[in-house]
Amino acid sequence: MGFIRAYLRVSTVGQDVMRAKNEIEEFAQRYQQQIAAYYFEKFTGTSLDRPELNRMLEDAQQGDIILIESVDRISRLKSGDWQQLKHLIEAKGVSVVALDLPTSHVALKQSDSGDDFIQAVLKAVNGMLLDILAATARKDYDLRRKRTLEGIAKAKATDPAKYRGRRRNELLWSSIRKLLETSHTYTAIQSITGASRMTISSVAKELKHETDLR
Fold first, then answer.
1. Distance separating alpha carbons of residues 179 and 192, to the nearest angstrom
2. Which of 35, 66, 70, 146 could form a disulfide with 100 if both were Cys (CB 3.0 to 4.6 A apart)?
């Protein structure tokens, strides 16, 4: 076994990366393993071009393990992008271990010669399950995004005036909050709501402040 590299991604200010870090550390300790490097990312999982993800893949060597909290932390990608990422991981000769995918945990165990067949079968099953979970994560993202956009469209049709004006637009702010909480980027939120980046930043700061008070 090579190095264990933990990848922790959050996409909104309301998500707690330290909670995930603690869970991953406890998980590694149960298998008497040490984490060699952490890669913290604040970026949507729908994008393949993520700085820390790319850095981790550049650092990774044959036999290393990528440790993640759940499959959706590494991918909410469309099918083609997921296959591209999966190919990059396989080409590097590294394994993915996800806390929510028990069949992947075998990669953390020292394998005996008599277990080679079992290891091979579990690796094949794990690859299939990774594909299923990655597809499920993307489907979940698409569904939540669709519902959010439908809600915004309905609100605009009911009272479009609430999306304009010098005073704080509560409906607009509420919509931006929902989009931030469903992994949308600033650019996507601008396109959907017409809000300025300054307004989106203000909503993000308020959301973070509320989270810090909890």
1. 9
2. 70
